[in-house]
Each structure stands twice: as structure tokens, then as C-alpha cells.
Amino acid sequence: MSEFTTPGSDAGRDESPGRFRPAAVAAVPLAAVGQALGVAVPEPAADAEITGISLNSRTVEPGDLYVALPGATRHGADFASDAIGAGAVAVLTDDAGARLLALSADTPVPVLVVGNPRNEVGPLSAMIYRSQADDGQPLRLFGVTGTNGKTTTTYFITSLLRALRQKTGLIGTIEILAGGKPIPSLLTTPESTEVHGLVALMRERGLDAAAMEVSSHAISYQRVDGLLFDVAGFTNLTQDHLDLHNTMEEYFATKAELFTPGRARRAVVTVDDEWGRRLAGSTRVPVTTLSTDGSNQADWTMAATAPRGLGTDFTLAGPAGATLKIHTGLPGSFNVANAALAALMVLASGVDLADLQAALDSADPFTVAVPGRMQLIAEQPAAVVDFAHNTDALARALEAVRPPQPDSRLIVVFGATGQRDQGKRPAMGAIAARLADTVIITDDDPHDEDAAAIRSDVMAGAREALDSGSLGAELLEVFPRDEAIHHAVSLARPQDTILVAGRGHEVWQEVKGVNLALDDRVELRNALTARGFNVLHDDRIES
């Protein structure tokens, strides 16, 4: 899922996928908005009624406050006339935006000017939508951050809460669920105006809880400002998004912001890596620690594991002799970690331990299939689609699907994304060469970068690993991506395993600004069917 966006919404003219706000909003006088901003509102306009807030002129509705932010190429003030035409009753902008409005023509609505309006968007959205007001039914919020595992963990949380007979919502990479028809996601975390609108909508529809993926982009671009999570969870931290954060220290510091008193009431932190241990030791909110690899002391640790089918039965040992017996049907030790984190986050929210265990026993909530996350397409050969798009995730995915039979081969198809952290490309190639028998390097989402150059970077890492490690993997470069998937299937025998990695649930491939229809799951099914192999149709996917 692309997070390649600029901090200004109208500057990129991104189209929102749905109406992210409640049906009924109690009007807030513009004078109250001005007071919150420390800006005087002229008396004739003080009683103007604000019933919504938007950063995008295309999503403005009558009664909205339109926030005009600077963007990479255009300023949101350039679209103020569109917003006013759609019913905006006031504009909030910065000095540059105010100058643009003054130059264009008379603006028929009040213009409020502050130094950095981006800082005000989250708190104003909370105020206008009353997303977490004390009145009415509270909505418990679960926020999951980390490099890998966010999506699966939020799906696990949602599935477990449903097993506890709670009505739940979801905000994440794949889709948004707010008690109605699923809405495909454009960003891992929507803009703060939409997040607060969604939370208010969930409350309006009587939902009990919601799980949300919180990306580092969301924190950096202030998309979760003004939101207080009941429980924040941390999965892990590995190299990714250094195109935005420059260093791992900066990346970690951004993630750590979620675990502060203004953003979370309590935390559950996986301490299997150095970053988790640092986070657990520095957070200023009550924290529960989790270790799943047995190497670290923690509040909850892995007491026993046993394989069952593709998945795992495991037991967590906790304080004062407490235990939790858990099963996940998804393959891989990382899904054990995701399931353990989900269970402890729900426990930390106040659910009774006995009730939690009863739900785990009766409903098997962690066998839910997550779209594009270790999604099994066929069994002979085993064919799996996964979102693994960085070094750590790719290594874990390859290890998870490695067939145990000595005469079986592991075939992997993957690429690297354009205009992203280039340093991980050769590392991904090297990992594939070390862990797979046949490595097919192809295109991911090149964006505006030359696809051949990206493939070359990945191939270089794979070749170096093969040359230096006396490895026997077969290395191929096949493109475009659909041909690479079909080629992988043409090589496969019933006892082999095919992993198509990097894009997961995504259905579009961006090449030079053009979105091309491409779904790895569809291509893999078609290729398998053409070869006469049977494919699965999974009805366990939550939606």
C-alpha cells in the first residue's frame, strides 16, 4: 500500500474513497473554533456554524471548515473557491495561503490564519466531530505500529473482539470497516480529518471498539493528532521507509511518539528486538511487555509451541502464574507474534482473562485469513501471496513457507518498489538467494523510476550472495510481473512452494503515473488453473 504522499491533501488532489464522517454533527460556532486557535473571528461571522472539516476541496460538504495547506507543488488555497462553492463556510490557512486568497479575488467566507495550520487539524477535527467526547457510548481504540505485522495484528484484534461479541471497526492498509460496506483504503492511515470522522461515525453506529494501523507516515504527517488510543501495540522495527526518516534512530523516534501520554493510555510492546526493548524502557505510559522468542525477560513469554497444520498452538505465560493457550492457523513465527500481541492488547483493554481464553477456545479467531497476508492460493503446489516488501519481512516469509520435504523447492517471485529506500534492494536480493531455490526478480511498483534499474539493484544483491556464499539458487529476471508469476508456476511441481511477495492485496501497479490492473492472487490462480492445478477459494477472509 503506497504511502508516497505529500503532507498537503489538496496539493495532491487525492480522491477520498468514501464519506468518512457521521451523519449528524452538532454545529460548532466559528467563534469557538477561533478561540481554540487563538484567532479573533469578526463578529458578523462568529455565529457561523461548522459541522465538518476537510483538507480536500473534493470532499467538502456544506458547513465545512476548509483547511488549505501547502503541498509539494500546489497550495490548498488554490482550491479554496472550489471548497467554498461546495459549501465551506470558512477557510483555515497559513500566511502563504492568505496571500494567495488575497491575490485571487474577494473570498466570501471568513479566513482564519495561523502559523502552522497542520498542527491544528487533528485537535480541530476532534472538537468538531466530538470523536472521543465523554458523552455517549465510548469506543475503545487499539493502535498498532511497527514495521511488519500491523495489518495482520489489527485483523486478529478485530476477529478476537468479534469472538467476544463486540461490534468492531477497522482502519488500515486493506480496507476500512465502520459498521457498513467495506471501503478500500488509499493510505495505511487516512488523514486526521477522516480518522476523527470515522471514529465519530463508528460511535454513531454503536460500535464498541476499533483497531487501527498507525504507520510512521501517519505520525510524521500528523494523521493521528488529537486521537487517544486505549491500547497502543508495537510489533517490531526493521529497515524500511528510510526515504522519509533518513536513519533508523529517526524512524524509531517517530514510532515512539505513539507511546506517549497524549496519544495512548497504555501499551503492549513486543521486546524481541532491540527497538522494542528500548521502547518498553522509555515509554511513559503503563506498559505490558511480550517476548515470543524466549530470549528476553518480559511480562508475558512463550512457554510452549507446537505445530498444527500450517499454523501453531502456543502458550503464553504471564504474571502470577497466568497463562493463555492460543492457536493461529497462519504460518510463520511472525504470525505467532502477531497473535500473541493481539491477545495481550485485548487483555490490556480490560477484558477478563477467563473470558478471553473462552473466546480463543470457542472461535479460533486467529485462523482468520487476512487478504494478501500469507494468503494460501493453492496447496499442491503450495502457492502463497504475501505483502513482504522489506528485508526482514521477506526473510520471515521465506522461512515460514519453506517446504520440509527434501525433494521440494521454494520458488519466490518479488521485486522492489520505486522511489523508496534504495538501500534495501540488494539486501532483499541477497536474502532471496540464500533462502529460496529459484529466485525470480521482477517489478513491484516502479512509480516514476526506471523499472530495469530497480531490478538491476535487486539482482546485484542476489548475484553477490550467490558468488560469495556457494549457494545453488537459480536466479532469473522475468518481467512484467504477470509473466514472472506465470513462469514461476510453469516451473513448479506439486511438491514445491511458490511465494509471490511484495504486493499482497494490492490490485493496481503504478508505472510512470499510470495504474495498471494487477492482482497477484488473480494472476497466481489463473496460472495455476492453466497448468491444471487446483486452487483454493478462501471463505475465512474477514471483511
From TrEMBL:
The modification N6-carboxylysine is found at residue 255. It comes from Arthrobacter sedimenti. Residues 372-504 form the Mur ligase C-terminal domain. One of its GO terms (molecular function) is UDP-N-acetylmuramoylalanyl-D-glutamate-2,6-diaminopimelate ligase activity. Keywords: ATP-binding, Cell cycle, Cell division, Cell shape, Cell wall biogenesis/degradation, Cytoplasm, Ligase, Magnesium, Nucleotide-binding, Peptidoglycan synthesis. The gene is murE. Its main location: cytoplasm. Pfam families: Mur_ligase, Mur_ligase_C, Mur_ligase_M. This is UDP-N-acetylmuramyl-tripeptide synthetase. UDP-N-acetyl-alpha-D-muramoyl-L-alanyl-D-glutamate binds at residues 55, 57, 188-189, 215, 223. It is an enzyme of class 6 (ligase). Catalyzes the addition of an amino acid to the nucleotide precursor UDP-N-acetylmuramoyl-L-alanyl-D-glutamate (UMAG) in the biosynthesis of bacterial cell-wall peptidoglycan. Its cofactor is Mg(2+). Carboxylation is probably crucial for Mg(2+) binding and, consequently, for the gamma-phosphate positioning of ATP. Its EC number is 6.3.2.-. Pathway: Cell wall biogenesis; peptidoglycan biosynthesis.
